[in-house]
Amino acid sequence: MRVNVALDAMGGDTGPDVAILGALAAVRACDDLHVILIGPEERLKARLAELAQGDTAAQAQVSVYPASEVVTMEDMPVDAIRKKKDATVVVGFDLVKKGQADAMVSAGNSGAIMAAAVKKLGRLPGIARPGIASFFPTARNRPVMIMDIGANVDCRAQHLYQFAVMATCYVRRVLHKEHPRVGLLSIGAETGKGNALVKETFPLLQASPLNFAGNVEGRDVYRGDVDVVVCDGFIGNILLKASEGLGEAALQMIRGEILKSWRARFGYLLMRGALAAFKKQVDYAEYGGAPLLGINGTGIVCHGASSAAALCRACIVAADMARHDINATIVGLLGEYRVEPESAAP
């Protein structure tokens, strides 16, 4: 069965050519995938024909759907999707709503992506706050999922509980791990550590059927001892950006040290393969963007500077999410794992 993925060709920092190349790479990798580029119709069609370089089979698996407006990074998300009704991100989720696309991928304004998704598709039954989840690399060579990484800067305990359920479901279906270990991000591993939100969420997770491992500290995220880490979007986004910055800085510092002496250059020749593998492991492109969990549909948020490889991977991940019907599993697990403490938010 063919899967149709809408791709915002104008979102992000890299321009439409990168989106077109990512779409072509995705359909070449998946025979049953069709990518719908959203943006200025004539411009995209002309560039698609040029960049396909005579590959008519791949070009036939990519189409263009017109949209005349773009939500910029400077726009206020809610205002932008209300005023710019023909924005690429709004049009893309409208295609999902109408059943003309099975999923939507964008590297644009993440707040606008979430706002457009909720406005067009709504929330899953029982979900108060959809969130953005992301895989992080670990020392055990298996990723850990962090949720939320920026959609909800102010949360209540019940929201974090729902994040844990949704992320658990995603890891079970995508990574095939039956009982993912869930950690609660805090300033100490001991019970009772953390702010008011963490202290209220801890007993809620502890009383649930989830495989709760207790509090985890920031340094524990990369050890791989847990499969899911939950936190509010304010903390999660700081963790995400700090991790990206550290990875880039580490590679730059290594390059600087290599250039200091001939011994270091010789050592680099011996370690070149290992360093390339490390770079690949910490590259956000390998994880195919961050899934929007809790919306009544399928959406992927990509890094603003996503390369063609990253957008290709995101389209493939979006198609896999649609095939696996992650949302049906989330609704089922939420009903199975529901815990309603007196202190929970309505």
TrEMBL record:
Reactions catalysed according to its record: a fatty acyl-[ACP] + phosphate = an acyl phosphate + holo-[ACP]
GO molecular function: phosphate:acyl-[acyl carrier protein] acyltransferase activity
One GO process term, biological-process aspect: phospholipid biosynthetic process
Gene3D superfamilies associated with the record: Isopropylmalate Dehydrogenase
Keywords of the record: Acyltransferase, Cytoplasm, Lipid biosynthesis, Lipid metabolism, Phospholipid biosynthesis, Phospholipid metabolism, Transferase
Pathway recorded for this protein: Lipid metabolism; phospholipid metabolism
Location within or outside the cell: Cytoplasm
GO CC annotation terms, alphabetical: cytoplasm
InterPro entries per the UniProt record, alphabetical: FA_synthesis, Phospholipid_synth_PlsX-like
Statement: the UniProt record of this protein carries the keyword Glycosyltransferase: no
Top-tier EC class: transferase
Subunit structure: Homodimer. Probably interacts with PlsY.
Name of this protein: Phosphate acyltransferase
Organism: Desulfobulbus oralis
